[in-house]
Design goal:
Elements (H helix, E strand, L loop, with lengths): L1 H33 L7 E4 L5 E6 L2 E6 L5 E2 L4 E2 L4 E2 H16 L6 E3 L6 E7 L4 H8 L1 H6 L2 E7 L8 H11 L3 H9 L4 H7 L11
Parallel strand pairs: 8-9
Antiparallel strand pairs: 1-2, 2-3, 3-4, 5-6, 7-9
Helix pairs in contact: 5-6
Length: 202
């Protein structure tokens, strides 16, 4: 009897494992047709039977096990009113931030870093400029500020061109401070206050 139960349990577990593999294959195939260049970070069962959580970056969607149906939105547990999707989104955001390489950012670091704040910045944003004006105070508190370029008006906009110039500068920190002060980057390049790297897109 005991051997029979063990055999049945092993069969059930192996069947479930095969079902999971089949579901993941179905979902990955469906996603490759919807978005061929998209890299999926994870595919796993959700708390809802037959529904799988798919994570890419900070985005979370749900697909049926056969890959035929896609749901975009938050999965709420009614008993607790907890947003289960937000947990996955939060983990995704943390991964995106942790994967950023500091050589690709503009970093203002104190001598001893106690905290790190990553800021998606638009050079022409008033609030972003106010934050930058207080950089010395943040650094004095041991707060490292890491800037990621985020020109709100998009590629080709004035803010985008300014960001491109800052990121192409030999001294990004100095160029960022000049740009956030509203000064002309072109004029500073002419006067030699800003030197651009060779073979830079700007």
């Amino acid at each position: 009897m005991k051997r029979t139960l063990v055999a049945m349990l092993a069969l059930l577990l192996s069947s479930a494992a095969v079902a999971d593999v089949d579901a993941e294959n179905n979902i990955r195939q469906a996603m490759s047709q919807l978005a061929p260049d998209l890299k999926l970070d994870s595919v796993k069962e959700s708390p809802v039977a037959g529904l799988y959580e798919v994570v890419f970056g900070a985005e979370v969607i749900y697909l049926s096990s056969d890959g035929k149906y896609l749901i975009q939105g938050s999965l709420i547990e009614t008993a607790t009113r907890k947003d289960l999707t937000e947990d996955a989104r939060s983990a995704g955001r943390n991964k995106v931030l942790n994967d950023l390489k500091e050589e690709d950012l503009v970093v203002f670091a104190p001598e001893e870093t106690k905290y790190t704040v990553t800021v998606f910045t638009d050079i022409d944003c008033g609030y972003c400029r106010k934050l930058h004006d207080e950089m010395d105070a943040y650094n004095a508190l041991g707060i490292k500020i890491r800037y990621v370029a985020y020109p709100r008006a998009g590629v080709g906009s004035t803010a985008f061109n300014k960001a491109e110039t800052v990121w192409c500068a030999e001294n990004r920190q100095s160029a960022m401070t000049i740009a956030k002060a509203g000064k002309s980057l072109e004029e500073k390049i002419k006067t030699g206050d800003i030197t651009l790297k060779e073979n830079c897109a700007s």
